[in-house]
Specification:
With 189 residues, this protein is an alpha+beta fold. It has 5 helices and 8 strands; from the N terminus they run E-E-H-H-E-E-E-H-E-H-E-E-H. Helix 1 packs across helix 2.
Length: 189
């Protein structure tokens, strides 16, 4: 199994594997913000203990799979902007996404982050990166489309968004596919 680099540099960002010392910044910058976490598939962190639990999960993901979560930092000043990364289902299929602190919205960081993630995906064996999103989260699916994802359809009554009181709802499914048709057929099933 090929392992992803633990840090990635883009023109304006540094993506790196989270560490225990990052807990307070993660909680304060985005994970504990109800507006930031509104459309996410994981519950808003209500305490630093929730963030520390995330960091343990992050470590286990990095140990088990080729990659896991990344923190997104500004290369200019090192400020934590958010996070991104992979959630693997199989060695070739992984969910991806991103979350950014409010003051990082609308500055192109989401697109730059997702493009960096997409660049390493095939190098670590991910043939099918995908993302699920709330139908009203237009900013998220617009970034996915900019980064080469195609909308595959709607998954009916598929996911609960724990920060909304809507119950299990329909979600949009976006994916990108890497590799040749014969490589894709080998991994089908």
């Amino acid at each position: 199994m090929l392992k992803a680099p633990t840090s990635i540099k883009t023109d304006g960002l540094m993506l790196r594997r989270p560490q225990g010392r990052d807990a307070t910044a993660i909680f304060e910058r985005y994970a504990g913000d109800p507006e930031v976490t509104r459309f996410l598939g994981w519950p808003m962190h209500r305490s630093l203990a929730d963030t520390q639990a995330f960091l343990k999960i992050s470590d286990s993901e990095w140990e088990r799979w080729p990659a896991g979560p990344y923190l997104v930092l500004s290369r200019a000043d090192g400020m934590l902007l958010g996070s991104s990364g992979f959630t693997f289902e199989t060695p070739y299929r992984a969910a991806i996404g991103y979350v950014l602190a409010r003051d990082a919205w609308g500055q192109g960081y989401a697109t730059e982050t997702l493009r960096a993630i997409m660049e390493i995906a095939p190098a670590i064996g991910v043939l099918r990166p995908y993302a699920l999103c709330h139908p009203q989260h237009r900013r998220f699916w617009r970034v996915l489309e900019k980064c080469g994802f195609e909308r595959e359809g709607m998954l009916r009554r598929y996911l609960e968004f724990p920060n909304l009181e809507a119950g299990v709802i329909d979600v949009l499914c976006y994916a990108a596919v890497f590799g040749t048709d014969s490589e894709q057929q080998e991994h089908a099933g």
